[in-house]
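seq as requested:
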Amino acid sequence: MSNQKLDEISLSERNVGGLYRPDVNTDSVNEKKLMRRIDLHVIPWLALLYFLNFMDRGNIGNAKLYGMTTNINHPISDTQYLIALTVYFFPYALIEPASNVILRRLKPSLWLSSLIFCWGVVMVCHGFIQSYGGLVTVRVLLGVTEAGMYPGIVFYISSWYKRTEMGSKIAFFFSSATLSGAFSGLLSVAIHNMDGVGGLAGWRWIFILEGLVTVVVALLSFWVIQDYPENAKFLSEKERVFVIRRLEDDVRLSAAGEQYRKKYVWQSVKDWKTWVAMGIYMGFDGPLYAFSLFLPTIINKYIFHSESNIGFTATKANLLTIPPYAWGCVTTVAVGILGDRIGTRYYMSLFLFATGAAGYIILIASRSPGLSYFAVFLAASAWVAGNVEGAYKRSVTLGMAIGWGNINGAVTSNIYRSTDSPWYTMGHGIVLAYIGIGLICVTIMRVGLHRENARRDRGERDEVIDGVDNKNAHVRNGQYPDIETARLDKGDDWSGFRYSL
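struct tokens:
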């Protein structure tokens, strides 16, 4: 369907599932004030949840510096420690796609709060392990219970905001992950002062206290998390209609009550964008987990490894992880806002990959502590959710892409071996290769989406719509009784959908 013909379709004709409510007058709604109120209700709490999510999965690196592998009944070897890090990622990655479909079928307030509660309990259990077997068990359970949180939050955000707003919203909540890295080091230093309290080592209290905080937040989340715009309690009926119309105008049907159908899952599996997106997330997540799990060790043994620094303690190493994470937080927010304002995400992704590559190249080549620490800042430097239309298809695509990205954490959790200390050349080289894969895939995505948009502009994807005279329409693209039926059935394959670049 040509753009001119689409513009001729009045808004009153776009009524899907009875939710659009053309009888409701929303002229009195102040969009700017409404969206600011939605921001305050949705984003800060999600940021807190992801803050805890990332801190709980990564605090094992801080605990290790305080003797987790040695101050235990049955000491854990370096190889066993790496295996324990690895087993976390398999259930975490494999369960994510199914978890996102469950999210759409259940209320987010119920599903997300349940996940949070379960992983909080598992985190507390970390504080009572006595052997390698116990560590592996709790790491597997942590992977199971944390699975689905990140893609679930991204999908949930995409059900509230237009595509042009997604980058900054996801950046604000994702920045909490980098912020959690900074706080994790600081909290570890503070909590370790409880060493000996209750007859427990300081590293055990790190897990116990942080896990208990997560459990409390989980209980509050059931009441704090709103579900979707169509049933948000903090919105009036008129405001709900306004938000839903706003999303429909952006060609996002999730808020309009899309029903689950198996075909949406298969659409995602057969879509080339899903597989390229998996490569993009592979390029992001591999380095992300390597950085978060091993930064304290790299700073302690790599940057300050010489005899003159032999007194350098675990506490100081944990404290020095704070500035790189803080820098990463600022960079994440800035890039997200800038990406939305200039209307393209390709160049932002390119910038992030290139900056990270520069950091790891310096880490490979440098033998200077000061220069290496600077490179750590460079190494610390949303596309898929905004480029897949249809709620169920989008949820599965996010689950597959992010799940594949996360399973690569199983690889990068094994690349910084103690035998490679202090320079870790192999580890840095593998991370650099991951970044290269991300660069290639993000470019393939950009080129592919640009070409597809051009085909739709030329009318090559136009469907046959009953009663509409369109010389470009062809039955191979589908035949439908009206525009809305075509849009609902085809999702982002619909001829009127344009991908964000």
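The first helix runs from residue 3 to 7.
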